[in-house]
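Listing S7. Sequence submitted for prediction.
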Amino acid sequence: MSRELVSWHPFQEVDRFFDDNLMGMIQTGSAPMLDVYQDSDNVMVDVQLPGIDPSKIDIDVENDVLTIAGISGDTKEVKRENYYRKEIRSGSFRRNIILPMPVKGDKAEASYDKGILTITLPKHEAAKPKKISVKVK
């Protein structure tokens, strides 16, 4: 039986903990998963909210922080003791996202299609890219 020395990298262990455990907690916890992306005029946020009644979703933008909150309810009345497994969560959820740039919150729009909530937030003029022309002397 041979024994090898194995180098230990504590920071890799910490990274792996957060990758494996934290993401698992987020996916199974009360915070919905989302994507944030942009084009030249808007910041867009796609939020996974399958089975949620869109009328029970509240969206708020204040100081360039987007808050998405709502309630997901049980659609079936099954007594707790009759479950073998219960993974579909119900109850309230809330997610706060610090936006990457200033936006016009009063001009935001939201749509819901096939379980995906899409929020479009127009960028503030100061955050839009500016084209500068070069003058030749």
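Caption to Listing S7: primary sequence and predicted structure tokens for the chain studied. Strands lie at 34-38, 42-48, 57-62, 65-72, 91-98, 109-113, 116-122. Residues 33-127 form a domain with the Immunoglobulin-like fold (CATH 2.60.40.790).
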